[in-house]
Here is the input.
Amino acid sequence: MEDDTNARNPVGEDQRMTALDERIKAVREREEARTKPTAGAEADANYRMGSRVLAELIGGIGGGAFIGWVIDQAIGRKSHWGLLVVMALGAFVAFRNIFRISGSSQG
Here is the structure.
C-alpha cells in the first residue's frame, strides 16, 4: 500500500520541477540581457550609414574615372575629356545616391 501512495505522488517531483523552472527563468533572463539593444546600437547604425555614404562617393567618382579612362584608351584620345566627363557623371550619381540615403533615414 505504501508503494502505491509513493507511486501516485512522488516526493521529489515538485522540487525538480521548481528547480527546472528556476533554471529556465535564469536562462531566459540571461538571453534577454544578451540580445537587448544597447545604447551603442544607434551609433552602430550611424557608423554603417557613414560607411555606405563613403562607399557611394568613392565608388561613384573612382568608377566614373576608371570607365572614362577606359573609354579614352579605347578611342585613342590623348586628351582626357572622356575621363573628366564620366568622372563628373559618376560624382553626380554618387551625390544623388547619398541624398537618397539621407532622405530615406529621416522618416
